[in-house]
Amino acid sequence: MRVRTSIAAAAVLAAGLTLTACQNDDKAAGADSTGSTASSTATARDGGATPSATAKGTASGAPSATGSDGSAKGGDGTIAACTARTTKAAFVAAAQHATRSKPATGTVKITNTSAKPCTIVGATTLVAKDDQGKSSPIETDNSAAGTDAVDVAPGATATASVSYTDLNFEGTESARQTCGVQASKVEIALPKDVGRTVKVTDGNGSAAIFNVCGKGVKFGAFRA
Known about the structure:
Blueprint: H1 2-45, H2 51-59, E1 87-92, E2 104-112, E3 118-120, E4 125-128, E5 138-141, E6 150-152, E7 157-164, E8 181-183, E9 185-189, E10 195-201, E11 210-212, E12 218-219
Parallel strand pairs: 1-10
Antiparallel strand pairs: 1-2, 2-7, 3-6, 4-5, 4-9, 7-12, 8-11, 9-10
């Protein structure tokens, strides 16, 4: 009887130990699962982006504030107008005298001195006053020649021709080059901008005279 009782007690004890071991294994497994979940949550909280979050960030990029050519443009794609503050003006007198069939040709130059492109659109005016004040000023603009928008890149120059007669074909040979308006300076005003006075030069940059006989001065359209 004692032997059977001892065997039975041993069996019960072994079963209890087995159950306790299984429970401990289950708890350990649960702890590992909880730790893995917590680690994943911490990674996401500390900046680890999920695939969906990354795709969303890529798709929501803000539109560029510059044009496709890298120029600085407004929100509607327009370019600011060229003004006296953003450009340098020059007037170059004709290199060759006029003939009876062909006028002399001078040049108005507008150089963009800013870091951004600008545009010339509208009529540009040109005024030349006789240095001695003996004749009425010559006033003209290029509205008849065409005033479509001309974009001028930073550092670039737009030019327009000025056709005129610089000889007096009705006078004597000695007086042929004596015209009513002999101007060493001219005033140039870009569209809707203030006028500025510039010296008349020749092609080499030396001082020259805008010598105008008659009123037939034609101001051409700008070309970039």
